[in-house]
Amino acid sequence: MAIVVDIDVMLARRGMSVGEFAAAVGITPANVAVLKNGRAKAVRFTTLDAICRVLGCEVGDVLRHVPDDTAAS
Amino acid sequence: MTRFVTPLLRGIIVILGLAALALGAGLPLVARDIAEAAPEFETIRLPYVAAAEAALACVLIALLALWILLGRVRRDRIFSPASLRWVDAIISAATAATAMTGLVFAHQMLAPVPGIGPAAWPLLLLVLAGIGFVLTMLVMRRLLVTAVGLRTDLDGVI
């Protein structure tokens, strides 16, 4: 998955647990795990908005684009 | 669906089911009476009654599948792959019943029992209606497949 979601650093900075984060954002802890290990296929903008609000950060602080290493040029 | 629709549809299914069962029970008796009154019908009595009973069984199977699909709609489980199995059951039952009716009609056309002649033509209407129904159900099945796919995609959105 070329889009990487990094919330661990932000969570540690805020001293927030995964459970608290999930409840504040309004998603299930299972979906938090799906986000973290790159299995998410789509995220609502409203969810992104909640994440940035809860963590007090920018979109670019939690989302990174890592292009896939494909053989085709 | 509104509160009224599901119980109403379920009531209709029950009525149709009871009617099918009543027909299934009464048909062999009526056939026997007809064959007694007019012995030339005796050769076709058993095969035709068997075909009719089989067609009624198909109707009951389709009604059962419809009942289950209604339940799935009510519990918002309709847009999942399991629903397709029940839709396939309806399509298979309708195809079988239509094919059987077609065979009886064809038999009447090719090897007519004297005196029945005109009575066979309603069967042709039933076959045409059956074909129309199966085609409609195939289109509906395609719709359901698409809906299931969309629902699966949507469920993956966080």
* Structural class designation of chain B: mainly alpha
Alpha carbon gap, first and last residue of chain B: 27 Å
Strand content of chain A: 5-15%
Largest sheet of chain A: 2 strands, antiparallel
CATH topology of chain A: 434 Repressor (Amino-terminal Domain)
Tally the beta strands of chain A.
2
Class from secondary-structure proportions of chain A: mainly alpha
> Rg of chain B to the nearest angstrom?
20 Å
What is the total number of structural domains of chain A?
A: 1
Q: Can you give the helix content of chain B as a percent range?
A: over 70%
Low-confidence stretches of chain A: none
Strand line-up in the sheet with most strands of chain A: 1-2
In the predicted model, the low-confidence regions of chain B spanning at least 5 consecutive residues are none
What's the helix count of chain B? 4
The share of residues in helices of chain A is: 40-55%
Tally of alpha and pi helices of chain A: 5
Mean pLDDT of chain A: 90
Integer-rounded radius of gyration of chain A: 13 Å
Largest interface: A-B, 10 and 4 residues
Shape of chain B: elongated
InterPro entries (chain A): Cro/C1-type_HTH, Lambda_DNA-bd_dom_sf
GO molecular function (chain A): DNA binding
Organism (chain A): Brachybacterium nesterenkovii
Domain HTH cro/C1-type (chain A): 13-62
Describe what this molecule looks like in 3D.
- The complex is a heterodimer of chains A (73) and B (158).
- Helices cover 52% and strands 8% of the residues of chain A.
- With 73 residues, chain A is mostly helical.
- The longest helix of chain A is centred in the last third of the chain and has 11 residues, at 45-55.
- Chain B has 158 residues and is mainly α.
- Chain B has one domain (2-157).
- In chain B, helix 2 (42-74) packs antiparallel against helix 3 (81-110) and helix 3 packs antiparallel against helix 4.
- The radius of gyration of chain B is 20 Å and the shape is elongated.
- At the A-B interface, helix 3 of A face loops of B.
